[in-house]
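Notes to self, Solute carrier family 22 member 3:
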Amino acid sequence: TTYDDILEEIGQFGRCQKRIVALFCLVSMPFPCAYIGIVFQGFTPEHWCRDPGVSQIAEHCAWSLQDTRRVTVPLVNTSAGVGYSQCERYNIDWNSTDLTCDHPEGDPSPARRLASPVSACTDGWVYDYEGRHSFVTEFDLVCADAWYVDMFQAALNVGFLVGSIAIGYLADKIGRMKSFLLTNFFIAVTGILVATSPNYIALLVFRALYGFGVKGGWMVGYVLITELVGVEYRRTVGVTYQMFFSIGILVLSLFAYIIPNWRWLQVAFTVPYIFFLSYYWFIPESPRWLLSQNKKAKALEITQEIAKENKKTLSKNIETLQDDSADSSSTASFLDLIKTPNLRKYTFILSFNWFTSAVVYQGLIMRLGIIGGNVYLDFLISGIVEFPAAFLILLTIERIGRRLPFAAANIMSGAACLITAFIPDSMFWFKTIVACIGRLGITMAFEMVVFVNTELYPTVIRNLGVSVCSTLCDIGGIVAPFLLYRLAVIWLELPLIIFGALAFVAGGLVLLLPETKGMPLPETIDDIENPKSNKENHLKSQQVENLLPSGVTSNKDVTTV
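result:
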Protein backbone atom coordinates (compact mmCIF):
# COMPACT_ATOMS: atom_id res chain seq x y z
CA THR A 1 0.00 0.00 0.00
CA THR A 2 1.33 3.43 -0.98
CA TYR A 3 0.37 6.75 0.54
CA ASP A 4 -1.63 7.62 -2.59
CA ASP A 5 -3.76 4.56 -1.85
CA ILE A 6 -4.32 5.82 1.68
CA LEU A 7 -5.30 9.28 0.37
CA GLU A 8 -8.07 7.71 -1.71
CA GLU A 9 -9.61 6.53 1.58
CA ILE A 10 -9.02 9.52 3.84
CA GLY A 11 -9.69 12.12 1.13
CA GLN A 12 -7.34 13.39 -1.57
CA PHE A 13 -8.35 16.99 -0.91
CA GLY A 14 -10.53 16.99 2.17
CA ARG A 15 -11.16 19.58 4.83
CA CYS A 16 -7.76 19.06 6.47
CA GLN A 17 -5.81 19.49 3.24
CA LYS A 18 -7.86 22.55 2.29
CA ARG A 19 -7.08 24.15 5.65
CA ILE A 20 -3.35 23.47 5.29
CA VAL A 21 -3.23 24.68 1.68
CA ALA A 22 -5.08 27.88 2.68
CA LEU A 23 -2.55 28.56 5.45
CA PHE A 24 0.40 27.95 3.16
CA CYS A 25 -1.04 30.16 0.43
CA LEU A 26 -0.53 32.98 2.93
CA VAL A 27 3.18 32.08 2.88
CA SER A 28 3.26 32.77 -0.85
CA MET A 29 1.93 36.33 -0.43
CA PRO A 30 4.99 38.05 1.14
CA PHE A 31 7.40 36.36 -1.30
CA PRO A 32 7.03 39.09 -4.01
CA CYS A 33 7.87 41.71 -1.37
CA ALA A 34 11.38 40.29 -1.27
CA TYR A 35 11.50 39.27 -4.94
CA ILE A 36 10.53 42.60 -6.53
CA GLY A 37 10.41 45.02 -3.60
CA ILE A 38 13.42 46.81 -5.12
CA VAL A 39 10.95 48.79 -7.29
CA PHE A 40 10.01 50.74 -4.15
CA GLN A 41 12.94 50.18 -1.78
CA GLY A 42 15.48 51.05 -4.47
CA PHE A 43 13.52 53.84 -6.14
CA THR A 44 15.83 56.41 -7.80
CA PRO A 45 14.14 59.83 -7.90
CA GLU A 46 15.07 62.80 -10.06
CA HIS A 47 18.39 64.14 -8.76
CA TRP A 48 21.22 66.58 -9.48
CA CYS A 49 24.40 67.89 -7.87
CA ARG A 50 24.20 69.83 -4.64
CA ASP A 51 26.02 73.19 -4.79
CA PRO A 52 26.71 74.58 -1.28
CA GLY A 53 27.66 77.94 -2.79
CA VAL A 54 24.15 78.64 -4.02
CA SER A 55 22.24 76.87 -1.24
CA GLN A 56 22.15 79.89 1.06
CA ILE A 57 20.98 82.16 -1.76
CA ALA A 58 18.27 79.65 -2.76
CA GLU A 59 17.06 79.39 0.84
CA HIS A 60 17.02 83.18 1.26
CA CYS A 61 15.20 83.73 -2.01
CA ALA A 62 12.78 80.79 -1.46
CA TRP A 63 13.67 79.32 -4.83
CA SER A 64 12.11 76.03 -5.85
CA LEU A 65 14.30 73.01 -6.50
CA GLN A 66 13.81 73.56 -10.23
CA ASP A 67 15.02 77.19 -9.96
CA THR A 68 18.19 76.04 -8.22
CA ARG A 69 18.76 73.30 -10.78
CA ARG A 70 18.44 75.74 -13.70
CA VAL A 71 21.18 77.89 -12.20
CA THR A 72 23.66 75.22 -11.10
CA VAL A 73 23.32 72.29 -13.52
CA PRO A 74 24.30 72.17 -17.22
CA LEU A 75 22.11 70.75 -19.97
CA VAL A 76 23.34 67.52 -21.58
CA ASN A 77 22.22 65.10 -24.26
CA THR A 78 20.64 61.92 -22.89
CA SER A 79 18.88 58.90 -24.41
CA ALA A 80 15.58 60.72 -23.77
CA GLY A 81 16.77 63.97 -25.38
CA VAL A 82 18.25 67.15 -23.90
CA GLY A 83 17.97 67.32 -20.11
CA TYR A 84 19.68 68.50 -16.98
CA SER A 85 22.80 66.60 -15.95
CA GLN A 86 22.45 64.35 -12.91
CA CYS A 87 26.15 63.91 -12.30
CA GLU A 88 27.80 67.28 -13.08
CA ARG A 89 27.41 70.92 -12.01
CA TYR A 90 28.87 74.27 -13.00
CA ASN A 91 32.10 75.06 -11.20
CA ILE A 92 31.36 78.72 -10.45
CA ASP A 93 32.34 80.93 -7.52
CA TRP A 94 28.89 82.29 -6.75
CA ASN A 95 30.28 85.00 -4.44
CA SER A 96 31.85 86.69 -7.48
CA THR A 97 28.51 86.93 -9.32
CA ASP A 98 25.63 89.37 -9.00
CA LEU A 99 23.04 86.68 -8.60
CA THR A 100 19.76 88.12 -7.27
CA CYS A 101 16.48 86.67 -6.06
CA ASP A 102 14.48 88.27 -8.87
CA HIS A 103 16.46 86.84 -11.78
CA PRO A 104 17.83 83.39 -10.95
CA GLU A 105 18.62 82.79 -14.61
CA GLY A 106 20.04 86.24 -15.36
CA ASP A 107 23.45 86.24 -13.71
CA PRO A 108 25.66 84.62 -14.47
CA SER A 109 24.36 84.79 -18.01
CA PRO A 110 23.59 81.61 -19.94
CA ALA A 111 26.60 82.29 -22.16
CA ARG A 112 28.89 82.60 -19.14
CA ARG A 113 27.51 79.41 -17.61
CA LEU A 114 28.10 77.51 -20.85
CA ALA A 115 31.68 78.72 -20.89
CA SER A 116 32.22 77.75 -17.24
CA PRO A 117 33.97 74.50 -16.35
CA VAL A 118 31.91 71.67 -14.89
CA SER A 119 32.82 69.31 -12.08
CA ALA A 120 31.51 66.10 -10.57
CA CYS A 121 29.12 66.07 -7.62
CA THR A 122 31.64 66.39 -4.81
CA ASP A 123 29.12 67.72 -2.29
CA GLY A 124 26.35 65.18 -2.70
CA TRP A 125 23.01 65.35 -4.50
CA VAL A 126 19.63 66.99 -4.25
CA TYR A 127 16.70 64.53 -4.58
CA ASP A 128 13.23 65.47 -5.71
CA TYR A 129 11.39 62.57 -4.09
CA GLU A 130 8.43 64.20 -2.31
CA GLY A 131 8.84 62.38 1.00
CA ARG A 132 9.77 58.95 -0.41
CA HIS A 133 12.94 57.57 1.13
CA SER A 134 14.82 54.71 -0.53
CA PHE A 135 18.22 53.24 0.17
CA VAL A 136 19.34 55.00 -3.01
CA THR A 137 18.70 58.44 -1.51
CA GLU A 138 20.08 57.43 1.88
CA PHE A 139 23.38 56.03 0.59
CA ASP A 140 23.70 58.27 -2.53
CA LEU A 141 23.76 55.34 -4.96
CA VAL A 142 23.65 57.39 -8.16
CA CYS A 143 25.99 58.31 -11.01
CA ALA A 144 29.24 56.36 -10.62
CA ASP A 145 27.74 54.33 -7.76
CA ALA A 146 24.46 53.54 -9.53
CA TRP A 147 25.55 49.96 -10.21
CA TYR A 148 25.38 49.28 -6.46
CA VAL A 149 21.59 49.28 -6.85
CA ASP A 150 21.97 46.33 -9.23
CA MET A 151 23.95 44.55 -6.52
CA PHE A 152 20.99 44.86 -4.12
CA GLN A 153 18.87 42.62 -6.38
CA ALA A 154 21.79 40.41 -7.39
CA ALA A 155 22.62 39.72 -3.73
CA LEU A 156 19.04 38.58 -3.15
CA ASN A 157 19.23 36.13 -6.06
CA VAL A 158 22.57 34.79 -4.85
CA GLY A 159 20.77 34.04 -1.59
CA PHE A 160 17.94 32.42 -3.57
CA LEU A 161 20.41 30.21 -5.42
CA VAL A 162 22.23 28.94 -2.35
CA GLY A 163 19.15 28.82 -0.10
CA SER A 164 16.97 26.77 -2.45
CA ILE A 165 19.65 24.08 -2.56
CA ALA A 166 20.65 24.17 1.12
CA ILE A 167 17.15 24.38 2.58
CA GLY A 168 15.89 21.75 0.13
CA TYR A 169 18.60 19.43 1.44
CA LEU A 170 17.70 20.36 5.02
CA ALA A 171 14.01 19.62 4.39
CA ASP A 172 14.92 16.13 3.17
CA LYS A 173 17.06 15.51 6.23
CA ILE A 174 15.14 16.92 9.22
CA GLY A 175 11.62 17.24 7.83
CA ARG A 176 9.42 19.73 6.02
CA MET A 177 7.92 21.50 9.02
CA LYS A 178 11.11 21.72 11.07
CA SER A 179 12.99 23.25 8.15
CA PHE A 180 10.02 25.57 7.43
CA LEU A 181 9.93 26.86 11.01
CA LEU A 182 13.71 27.28 11.24
CA THR A 183 13.70 29.10 7.93
CA ASN A 184 10.98 31.52 9.04
CA PHE A 185 12.86 32.31 12.23
CA PHE A 186 15.96 32.96 10.11
CA ILE A 187 13.96 35.21 7.74
CA ALA A 188 12.54 37.20 10.67
CA VAL A 189 16.03 37.85 12.07
CA THR A 190 17.71 38.72 8.75
CA GLY A 191 14.72 40.81 7.62
CA ILE A 192 15.07 43.05 10.67
CA LEU A 193 18.83 43.22 10.10
CA VAL A 194 18.18 44.45 6.54
CA ALA A 195 15.90 47.17 7.94
CA THR A 196 18.55 48.31 10.44
CA SER A 197 21.64 48.07 8.21
CA PRO A 198 24.12 50.82 9.17
CA ASN A 199 25.81 50.93 5.76
CA TYR A 200 25.45 49.57 2.26
CA ILE A 201 27.94 46.71 2.61
CA ALA A 202 26.02 45.40 5.63
CA LEU A 203 22.79 45.85 3.65
CA LEU A 204 24.08 43.62 0.83
CA VAL A 205 25.23 40.90 3.25
CA PHE A 206 21.94 40.85 5.16
CA ARG A 207 19.99 41.02 1.90
CA ALA A 208 21.74 37.87 0.61
CA LEU A 209 21.01 36.06 3.91
CA TYR A 210 17.40 37.24 3.72
CA GLY A 211 17.10 35.79 0.21
CA PHE A 212 18.70 32.56 1.45
CA GLY A 213 15.73 32.00 3.72
CA VAL A 214 12.83 33.46 1.72
CA LYS A 215 12.97 31.26 -1.36
CA GLY A 216 13.92 28.13 0.56
CA GLY A 217 10.93 28.58 2.88
CA TRP A 218 8.62 29.20 -0.08
CA MET A 219 9.80 26.00 -1.79
CA VAL A 220 9.35 23.92 1.38
CA GLY A 221 5.75 25.13 1.58
CA TYR A 222 5.19 24.18 -2.06
CA VAL A 223 6.58 20.68 -1.49
CA LEU A 224 4.56 20.10 1.69
CA ILE A 225 1.15 21.00 0.23
CA THR A 226 1.72 18.89 -2.89
CA GLU A 227 2.72 15.93 -0.71
CA LEU A 228 -0.47 16.15 1.35
CA VAL A 229 -2.97 16.02 -1.54
CA GLY A 230 -3.81 13.37 -4.11
CA VAL A 231 -2.21 13.24 -7.54
CA GLU A 232 -5.32 14.69 -9.22
CA TYR A 233 -5.11 17.88 -7.14
CA ARG A 234 -1.37 18.57 -7.18
CA ARG A 235 -1.35 20.80 -10.24
CA THR A 236 -4.37 22.81 -9.09
CA VAL A 237 -2.85 23.26 -5.65
CA GLY A 238 0.49 24.29 -7.16
CA VAL A 239 -1.09 26.86 -9.50
CA THR A 240 -3.19 28.24 -6.63
CA TYR A 241 -0.09 28.57 -4.47
CA GLN A 242 1.58 30.59 -7.24
CA MET A 243 -1.59 32.65 -7.74
CA PHE A 244 -1.24 33.96 -4.20
CA PHE A 245 2.16 35.27 -5.27
CA SER A 246 0.23 37.53 -7.65
CA ILE A 247 -2.06 38.61 -4.82
CA GLY A 248 1.09 39.49 -2.89
CA ILE A 249 2.07 41.86 -5.71
CA LEU A 250 -1.15 43.82 -5.18
CA VAL A 251 -0.56 43.93 -1.42
CA LEU A 252 3.02 45.11 -2.03
CA SER A 253 1.87 48.14 -4.02
CA LEU A 254 -0.55 49.04 -1.19
CA PHE A 255 2.15 48.67 1.49
CA ALA A 256 4.59 50.78 -0.53
CA TYR A 257 1.99 53.53 -0.97
CA ILE A 258 1.23 53.65 2.75
CA ILE A 259 4.85 53.28 3.95
CA PRO A 260 7.19 55.63 2.02
CA ASN A 261 10.32 54.79 4.06
CA TRP A 262 12.30 51.79 2.79
CA ARG A 263 13.38 50.66 6.27
CA TRP A 264 9.85 50.54 7.70
CA LEU A 265 8.69 48.92 4.46
CA GLN A 266 11.24 46.15 5.07
CA VAL A 267 9.85 45.69 8.59
CA ALA A 268 6.37 45.30 7.08
CA PHE A 269 7.76 42.64 4.69
CA THR A 270 9.24 40.73 7.65
CA VAL A 271 6.31 40.72 10.11
CA PRO A 272 4.33 37.94 8.31
CA TYR A 273 7.23 35.52 8.74
CA ILE A 274 7.02 35.98 12.51
CA PHE A 275 3.33 35.08 12.30
CA PHE A 276 4.14 31.94 10.29
CA LEU A 277 6.03 30.53 13.29
CA SER A 278 2.59 29.84 14.82
CA TYR A 279 2.11 27.13 12.18
CA TYR A 280 3.95 24.83 14.58
CA TRP A 281 0.59 24.27 16.33
CA PHE A 282 -1.60 23.97 13.23
CA ILE A 283 0.24 22.00 10.53
CA PRO A 284 1.59 18.44 10.84
CA GLU A 285 4.71 16.98 9.32
CA SER A 286 4.44 15.41 5.86
CA PRO A 287 3.50 11.71 6.24
CA ARG A 288 5.28 11.01 2.95
CA TRP A 289 8.53 12.35 4.39
CA LEU A 290 8.03 10.34 7.59
CA LEU A 291 7.59 7.19 5.52
CA SER A 292 10.78 7.95 3.61
CA GLN A 293 12.54 8.06 7.00
CA ASN A 294 10.92 4.77 8.14
CA LYS A 295 8.88 6.56 10.83
CA LYS A 296 5.69 4.60 10.19
CA ALA A 297 4.20 5.11 13.66
CA LYS A 298 4.29 8.89 13.39
CA ALA A 299 3.07 8.75 9.79
CA LEU A 300 0.12 6.60 10.91
CA GLU A 301 -0.70 8.98 13.75
CA ILE A 302 -0.79 12.03 11.45
CA THR A 303 -2.72 10.12 8.78
CA GLN A 304 -5.36 9.15 11.32
CA GLU A 305 -5.67 12.80 12.40
CA ILE A 306 -6.15 13.85 8.77
CA ALA A 307 -8.80 11.13 8.32
CA LYS A 308 -10.59 12.27 11.47
CA GLU A 309 -10.68 15.93 10.34
CA ASN A 310 -11.89 14.80 6.90
CA LYS A 311 -14.57 12.64 8.64
CA LYS A 312 -13.22 9.52 6.96
CA THR A 313 -12.25 6.09 8.28
CA LEU A 314 -8.83 4.58 7.71
CA SER A 315 -9.32 0.86 6.97
CA LYS A 316 -6.36 -0.24 4.88
CA ASN A 317 -3.63 -2.33 6.49
CA ILE A 318 -1.20 0.35 7.57
CA GLU A 319 1.50 -2.25 8.21
CA THR A 320 1.91 -2.66 4.46
CA LEU A 321 2.25 1.10 3.92
CA GLN A 322 5.51 1.94 2.17
CA ASP A 323 7.31 4.93 0.71
CA ASP A 324 6.11 5.18 -2.88
CA SER A 325 9.37 6.90 -3.91
CA ALA A 326 11.63 4.22 -2.48
CA ASP A 327 11.84 2.31 -5.74
CA SER A 328 13.08 5.37 -7.59
CA SER A 329 16.03 6.11 -5.32
CA SER A 330 19.31 5.99 -7.22
CA THR A 331 22.69 7.61 -7.36
CA ALA A 332 21.82 10.19 -9.98
CA SER A 333 24.52 12.61 -11.11
CA PHE A 334 24.71 15.73 -13.24
CA LEU A 335 26.23 13.68 -16.09
CA ASP A 336 22.95 11.75 -16.36
CA LEU A 337 21.30 14.98 -17.53
CA ILE A 338 23.59 15.39 -20.53
CA LYS A 339 24.91 11.96 -21.44
CA THR A 340 22.13 11.01 -23.89
CA PRO A 341 20.88 13.08 -26.87
CA ASN A 342 17.28 13.70 -25.77
CA LEU A 343 18.17 14.45 -22.15
CA ARG A 344 20.89 16.81 -23.34
CA LYS A 345 18.34 18.64 -25.48
CA TYR A 346 15.77 18.81 -22.67
CA THR A 347 18.32 20.09 -20.17
CA PHE A 348 19.51 22.86 -22.48
CA ILE A 349 16.03 24.01 -23.54
CA LEU A 350 14.54 23.91 -20.04
CA SER A 351 17.54 25.66 -18.48
CA PHE A 352 17.34 28.42 -21.11
CA ASN A 353 13.61 28.82 -20.43
CA TRP A 354 14.17 29.08 -16.67
CA PHE A 355 16.84 31.73 -17.32
CA THR A 356 14.68 33.66 -19.80
CA SER A 357 11.59 33.58 -17.58
CA ALA A 358 13.53 35.04 -14.65
CA VAL A 359 15.27 37.74 -16.71
CA VAL A 360 12.16 38.91 -18.56
CA TYR A 361 9.79 38.63 -15.58
CA GLN A 362 12.02 40.52 -13.15
CA GLY A 363 13.14 42.93 -15.85
CA LEU A 364 9.60 43.95 -16.81
CA ILE A 365 8.64 44.53 -13.19
CA MET A 366 11.78 46.47 -12.23
CA ARG A 367 11.34 48.56 -15.37
CA LEU A 368 8.23 50.08 -13.79
CA GLY A 369 10.48 51.93 -11.36
CA ILE A 370 12.48 53.76 -14.06
CA ILE A 371 9.95 54.69 -16.76
CA GLY A 372 8.34 57.53 -14.81
CA GLY A 373 4.63 57.97 -14.26
CA ASN A 374 2.68 56.73 -11.25
CA VAL A 375 4.69 53.72 -10.14
CA TYR A 376 1.99 52.58 -7.68
CA LEU A 377 -0.73 52.51 -10.33
CA ASP A 378 1.55 50.90 -12.93
CA PHE A 379 2.59 48.25 -10.42
CA LEU A 380 -1.02 47.54 -9.46
CA ILE A 381 -2.11 47.15 -13.09
CA SER A 382 0.80 44.84 -13.86
CA GLY A 383 -0.10 42.70 -10.84
CA ILE A 384 -3.75 42.37 -11.88
CA VAL A 385 -2.61 41.20 -15.33
CA GLU A 386 -1.03 38.10 -13.75
CA PHE A 387 -4.35 36.60 -12.62
CA PRO A 388 -5.59 35.52 -16.07
CA ALA A 389 -2.32 33.59 -16.52
CA ALA A 390 -3.29 30.84 -14.06
CA PHE A 391 -6.78 30.46 -15.55
CA LEU A 392 -5.42 30.35 -19.11
CA ILE A 393 -2.98 27.62 -18.09
CA LEU A 394 -5.67 25.48 -16.45
CA LEU A 395 -7.95 26.08 -19.45
CA THR A 396 -5.45 25.10 -22.15
CA ILE A 397 -3.09 22.42 -20.82
CA GLU A 398 -5.70 19.65 -20.72
CA ARG A 399 -7.37 20.68 -23.98
CA ILE A 400 -4.47 21.75 -26.18
CA GLY A 401 -1.49 20.33 -24.36
CA ARG A 402 1.68 21.73 -22.82
CA ARG A 403 4.01 22.52 -25.70
CA LEU A 404 1.91 24.94 -27.79
CA PRO A 405 0.64 27.12 -24.89
CA PHE A 406 4.15 27.17 -23.41
CA ALA A 407 5.72 28.26 -26.71
CA ALA A 408 2.90 30.71 -27.48
CA ALA A 409 3.29 32.37 -24.07
CA ASN A 410 6.99 33.00 -24.68
CA ILE A 411 6.48 34.24 -28.25
CA MET A 412 3.58 36.49 -27.18
CA SER A 413 5.76 38.02 -24.47
CA GLY A 414 8.67 38.52 -26.87
CA ALA A 415 6.48 40.18 -29.50
CA ALA A 416 4.91 42.48 -26.91
CA CYS A 417 8.33 43.56 -25.61
CA LEU A 418 9.60 44.39 -29.10
CA ILE A 419 6.42 46.28 -30.05
CA THR A 420 6.39 48.22 -26.77
CA ALA A 421 9.95 49.43 -27.38
CA PHE A 422 8.89 51.28 -30.54
CA ILE A 423 5.54 52.71 -29.41
CA PRO A 424 5.93 56.46 -28.73
CA ASP A 425 5.31 57.72 -25.20
CA SER A 426 2.48 59.91 -26.50
CA MET A 427 0.42 56.71 -27.02
CA PHE A 428 0.55 55.99 -23.29
CA TRP A 429 -2.43 53.66 -22.83
CA PHE A 430 -1.71 51.65 -25.98
CA LYS A 431 1.87 51.21 -24.82
CA THR A 432 0.67 50.15 -21.37
CA ILE A 433 -1.76 47.57 -22.81
CA VAL A 434 0.90 45.99 -25.03
CA ALA A 435 3.37 45.90 -22.12
CA CYS A 436 0.73 44.17 -19.97
CA ILE A 437 0.29 41.50 -22.65
CA GLY A 438 4.03 40.88 -22.44
CA ARG A 439 3.76 40.56 -18.67
CA LEU A 440 0.85 38.11 -19.03
CA GLY A 441 2.83 35.98 -21.49
CA ILE A 442 5.97 35.71 -19.39
CA THR A 443 3.91 34.95 -16.27
CA MET A 444 2.30 32.01 -18.08
CA ALA A 445 5.69 30.82 -19.31
CA PHE A 446 7.18 31.09 -15.83
CA GLU A 447 4.38 29.03 -14.27
CA MET A 448 4.40 26.41 -17.05
CA VAL A 449 8.13 25.72 -17.01
CA VAL A 450 7.73 24.34 -13.49
CA PHE A 451 5.51 21.36 -14.31
CA VAL A 452 6.80 20.83 -17.87
CA ASN A 453 10.25 20.39 -16.32
CA THR A 454 8.79 17.80 -13.93
CA GLU A 455 6.98 15.86 -16.67
CA LEU A 456 9.91 15.56 -19.08
CA TYR A 457 12.51 13.99 -16.79
CA PRO A 458 12.40 10.30 -15.76
CA THR A 459 11.73 9.36 -12.16
CA VAL A 460 15.30 8.29 -11.46
CA ILE A 461 16.65 11.83 -12.09
CA ARG A 462 13.51 13.98 -11.84
CA ASN A 463 14.41 15.87 -8.65
CA LEU A 464 17.97 16.41 -9.83
CA GLY A 465 16.79 17.63 -13.23
CA VAL A 466 14.37 20.16 -11.78
CA SER A 467 16.96 21.38 -9.26
CA VAL A 468 19.71 21.86 -11.85
CA CYS A 469 17.51 23.55 -14.45
CA SER A 470 15.83 25.85 -11.92
CA THR A 471 19.20 27.17 -10.72
CA LEU A 472 19.27 29.06 -14.03
CA CYS A 473 16.26 30.97 -12.70
CA ASP A 474 18.38 32.45 -9.91
CA ILE A 475 21.29 33.08 -12.27
CA GLY A 476 18.84 34.96 -14.50
CA GLY A 477 17.77 36.95 -11.46
CA ILE A 478 21.39 37.93 -10.82
CA VAL A 479 21.81 39.08 -14.43
CA ALA A 480 18.44 40.88 -14.77
CA PRO A 481 19.19 44.09 -12.79
CA PHE A 482 22.48 44.71 -14.60
CA LEU A 483 20.81 44.05 -17.94
CA LEU A 484 17.95 46.44 -17.18
CA TYR A 485 19.58 49.34 -15.38
CA ARG A 486 22.85 49.52 -17.33
CA LEU A 487 21.27 49.19 -20.80
CA ALA A 488 18.52 51.68 -19.91
CA VAL A 489 21.24 54.31 -19.45
CA ILE A 490 22.07 53.94 -23.16
CA TRP A 491 18.43 53.85 -24.30
CA LEU A 492 15.43 53.40 -22.03
CA GLU A 493 13.81 50.86 -24.36
CA LEU A 494 16.96 48.85 -25.13
CA PRO A 495 16.31 46.27 -22.38
CA LEU A 496 12.94 45.51 -24.01
CA ILE A 497 14.73 44.58 -27.24
CA ILE A 498 16.90 42.10 -25.33
CA PHE A 499 13.91 40.71 -23.40
CA GLY A 500 11.96 40.27 -26.62
CA ALA A 501 14.80 38.44 -28.35
CA LEU A 502 15.30 36.09 -25.37
CA ALA A 503 11.59 35.27 -25.18
CA PHE A 504 11.35 34.61 -28.93
CA VAL A 505 14.29 32.19 -28.81
CA ALA A 506 12.85 30.48 -25.72
CA GLY A 507 9.48 30.02 -27.46
CA GLY A 508 11.11 28.58 -30.57
CA LEU A 509 13.13 26.11 -28.51
CA VAL A 510 10.01 24.91 -26.66
CA LEU A 511 8.60 23.71 -30.01
CA LEU A 512 11.48 21.21 -30.11
CA LEU A 513 10.21 19.53 -26.93
CA PRO A 514 7.76 16.59 -27.07
CA GLU A 515 4.14 16.92 -26.01
CA THR A 516 3.49 15.36 -22.57
CA LYS A 517 -0.32 15.64 -22.42
CA GLY A 518 -1.81 12.21 -21.76
CA MET A 519 1.62 10.58 -21.67
CA PRO A 520 2.89 8.44 -18.77
CA LEU A 521 5.61 9.96 -16.64
CA PRO A 522 8.90 8.42 -17.82
CA GLU A 523 10.45 6.06 -15.28
CA THR A 524 13.90 5.46 -16.78
CA ILE A 525 16.35 7.20 -19.09
CA ASP A 526 15.51 4.58 -21.72
CA ASP A 527 11.90 5.85 -21.68
CA ILE A 528 13.24 9.26 -22.72
CA GLU A 529 15.44 7.97 -25.50
CA ASN A 530 12.77 5.55 -26.78
CA PRO A 531 9.46 7.36 -26.16
CA LYS A 532 7.50 5.08 -28.53
CA SER A 533 8.47 2.05 -26.48
CA ASN A 534 7.37 3.85 -23.30
CA LYS A 535 3.96 4.64 -24.80
CA GLU A 536 3.49 1.06 -26.03
CA ASN A 537 4.35 -0.30 -22.57
CA HIS A 538 1.83 2.08 -21.03
CA LEU A 539 -0.92 0.92 -23.40
CA LYS A 540 -0.11 -2.75 -22.72
CA SER A 541 -0.21 -2.10 -18.98
CA GLN A 542 -3.64 -0.51 -19.31
CA GLN A 543 -4.89 -3.46 -21.39
CA VAL A 544 -3.64 -5.95 -18.78
CA GLU A 545 -5.32 -4.01 -15.97
CA ASN A 546 -8.60 -3.97 -17.90
CA LEU A 547 -8.46 -7.79 -18.18
CA LEU A 548 -7.76 -8.34 -14.48
CA PRO A 549 -10.65 -9.07 -12.11
CA SER A 550 -12.04 -6.23 -10.02
CA GLY A 551 -9.80 -5.29 -7.07
CA VAL A 552 -6.65 -6.75 -8.69
CA THR A 553 -3.93 -4.61 -10.23
CA SER A 554 -0.82 -5.31 -12.22
CA ASN A 555 2.52 -5.50 -10.48
CA LYS A 556 3.65 -2.11 -11.67
CA ASP A 557 1.42 0.94 -11.62
CA VAL A 558 2.02 3.50 -14.33
CA THR A 559 1.37 7.11 -13.42
CA THR A 560 -0.31 9.14 -16.12
CA VAL A 561 -0.06 12.88 -16.54
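- Strands lie at 46-49, 75-78, 81-84, 88-90, 118-120, 125-128.
- Residues 549-561 have pLDDT under 50 and may be disordered.
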